[in-house]
Amino acid sequence: MLARLSPLIIDEAVARALKEDFGDAGDVTTNATIPVDAQAKAVIAARKPGVIAGVDAAIAAFRMADPSIELTIEKNDGARVQKGDVILSSNGSARSVLSAERVALNFLGHLSGVATGTAALVDAVKGTKAKIVCTRKTTPGLRAFEKYAVRCGGGHNHRFGLYDAVMIKDNHIAASGGIAKALSAARASVGHMVKIEIEVDGLGQLEEALAHGADVVLLDNMTPADMKKAVAVNNGRAVLEASGNVTIDTVRAIAETGVDVISSGWITHSAPNLDLGLDFL
User: Fold this and answer.
1) What's the CATH fold of domain 123-269?
2) Given 74, 220, 256, 275, the catalytic residue
3) Contacts by 278-281, CB closer than 8 A, 24 or more apart
């Protein structure tokens, strides 16, 4: 079962977005044109196929604008939808629905886009053991949401921040004096529950990383042929993560090399917004 985001995280982000939109004067257009007692039924529906994420955030936007709005979830997070499928139905104050519309759609469209992009990569590697994971290349302030959307699309999460795993990259290696020194220092510094990953760009570096006990090795921008050699050299000693040039066109070949994990920054920083719209009935 999909673990949902904490309401505390959702409410904080949605309240901030509504405050940004309402400003000091509120929705001047809606307040000027719609009678205060006008009631309306509306639906949010998909205008393109995709995978849904962010329903709870959309609901929070409407309920913060007006707790009396009646809301019905038609499609839950993780659901695959076709053009025309209704995701959320509402019934209540026309003013409130219109005022919350954009914030609700911003969260729902963006997160559904992340879920949809993730699902495309997950579908492409079916039948292999490779897992699709995200990175820290996220929108500032929305990392928890985007990583949740990755899970909605069938992907998995890499580390959430600088605090929950050691990730030794090329600049760390250069600044610390090499792979052996970096790994030894990391092992001496962190607790036994913290995993240590190191980035390598060649088979020679891989051998050194394995010799010094890396838990996870990131194969950076290697060709599929070299990744396949790396899998053989590793022989199950460490988790192997492939990164760099991961697209819908390349991901299958990468997965077929036998790597354990394929990481993609694209699914959080560049996945297109899923086209959704709110229409009054």
Assistant:
1) TIM Barrel (3.20.20)
2) 220
3) 278/42, 278/43, 278/44, 278/97, 278/101, 278/104, 278/105, 279/42, 279/43, 279/45, 280/40, 280/41, 280/42, 280/94, 281/40, 281/41, 281/42, 281/43
Is 70 catalytic? The answer is: no
- Mark whether 169 is an active-site residue: yes
Global pTM?
A: 0.95
pLDDT < 50 positions in the chain: none
pLDDT at residue 1, rounded to an integer = 72
The full set of domain ranges for the chain reads 7-116+272-280, 123-269
**Catalytic, out of 4, 102, 195, 237:** 102
| DSSP assignment letter at 272 | P
Decide if 159 is catalytic.
Answer: no
| Domain at 7-116+272-280: CATH architecture | Alpha-Beta Complex (3.90)
pLDDT at 2: 81
| Catalytic status, residue 102 | yes
- Given the residues 146, 199, 241, 260, the one annotated as active site: 199
What SS3 state is found at 129?
coil
Catalytic residue among 164, 169, 170, 279: 169
Q: Which two tokens stand for residue 54?
A: 């962010």
- Tell me how far CA of residue 224 lies from CA of 74, 77, 229, 245, 252, in angstroms: 42, 34, 9, 11, 10
275 catalytic per annotation: no
Structure tokens at 206: 């891989």
